[in-house]
Amino acid sequence: MNFNLLRELSEAFGPSGCEDEIREILKREVSKFTDEVIVDSLGNIIAHIPGKGPKVLVDAHMDEVGFIVRRIDENGFVYFLPVGDTMAEIVYGQRVVAKGKNKKLVGIVGSLPPHLFRDTETGGKKVMSIENFFVDFGISRKELEQEIEPGTFLVFDTPFREMGNSIMGKAFDDRVGCFVMIEALRKAKKIGCDLYLVGSVQEEEGLKGIGPAAFRINPDFGIVLEGTIANDIPWVPEHEKLASLDCGPTLRLSDRRILTDREVVNFIRAVGDKRKIKYQVTVKRAGSTDATVLQLSRCGVRVAIISTPVRYIHTATALARKKDIEYAVNLLAGVLEEAGELAKIHHKTCD
Fold first, then answer.
1. pLDDT of 233-254, one tens digit each?
2. Any idea which residues carry the catalytic annotation?
3. How far apart, in whole angstroms, are the C-alpha atoms of residue 122 and residue 287?
4. Given 101, 242, 295, 324, which residue has the most CB atoms within 10 angstroms?
């Protein structure tokens, strides 16, 4: 499998509220399969591939965690707030890129060095927070203000790398899902349903994009594609592991905000079993996805979640296995080919 498209998606700039570059990539790719492509008022991209059978929505969110400028001080240091959820401890010392008015600028996240970051009363280390950080672009305030102002977005500046069967890069949550959606479409020999593809916005800021898209489409079934937490790492007991690399995509039965549709999940499992595709089943009370909002659209949507396991999501650099991504592509392609079978469990009663 060629991972150049994933490289392009990973390296593109796209925090919540600024998904333009990702949207253009997806528009270019889905337009190879259909002329019915629109961008709604919130910024979601929606592609329709007409077909017979149940109406199926496949969703992958375009946005990534990032930051937003709140002020520039007199010395040219730029203070910021998080966009989405990331840990302060992993931000210090990272290289970030800002999307300026005319060009992108690269800077370094700075703070007091660890030697000086101590509580004056106890002598112990203080707890780091985003409010303690700034970005040093190495240029004057006058130069900065030609490009940057309060509200300018920033993301981690991380190159995509292939290391044998592993890949490393930023924004695998959820550029991996975007990649799986396009590659499965490319791989599927037929589409057994009336298919809608959604690249949604602002998932990392409250699952905002998918609601309006789902309301417009009014699907019978929804499949959400994600890059999910793989915590098969040292110091995590076996019984606390949520997902592991090298075991295929996860089929989620529950998380903090959802119980997925068991019949739809079982249908996907049957497709995987028949085609000898690796997958793992996850039951957890952590995290949430667009499926939470999609499930409650209009009269309700029967949903499932296919997630590729990724280590170190919401950091500057994540790690995933090529083989797990290939399994996810093959599984979704099989689901699309056999989606007509979903009509057997369809019982939606409102339009």
1. 999 999 999 999 999 999 999 9
2. 203
3. 36
4. 324
